[in-house]
Write a structure and sequence with these properties.
Helix content: over 70%
Largest sheet: none
CATH class: Mainly Alpha
Strand content: under 5%
Number of domains: 1
Distance between the termini: 64 Å
CATH architecture: Up-down Bundle
CATH superfamily: Fumarate reductase/succinate dehydrogenase, transmembrane subunit
Shape: extended
CATH topology: 3 helical TM bundles of succinate and fumarate reductases
Structural class: mainly alpha
Length: 127
Amino acid sequence: MADVNRGNRPLSPHLSIYRPQLNSITSILTRITGNALVVGALMVTWWFLAAATGPDYFATADAFVTSWFGDLVLFLSLWALWYHSLAGLRHLYWDTGRGFELDTAEKLGWAVVGGSVLLTLLTVAVI
C-alpha cells in the first residue's frame, strides 16, 4: 500500500549537518583511489600497446606518458596504489574484529594517509 504521508516525513540527515570525520574521508578516498587507478592502468596499457604496434605510434604514446601531465598521472596513480593497498590492509585488520575503538581507528586512518605519502615519496626516490 502506498504511503500517503510521504511528504510529511522528516528528511534524513544531510552531509551539511555532520562534520566529516577521518574515517568517512578515508573510506570515500579508498573508493575514489580504486576507481582512479583505472586511469593510470589504461595509460600504461596504451603505452605497452603502442610499443607493440610500431615506432611511430610508440613515439606519440611515449611523448604523452613522459610529458608533465603523464608524469603527474603516474605519480598520483602511484600514490593511489599505495593508499588503496594500505587501506585494504586496514580493512583486513578490521575484519579480525579489532581496531574499532575511536582512537585506534583514527590512528589507523592517519597511518594510511601518512604511510601512503611516505611510501610514494620513497618509491619515487628509489626509482
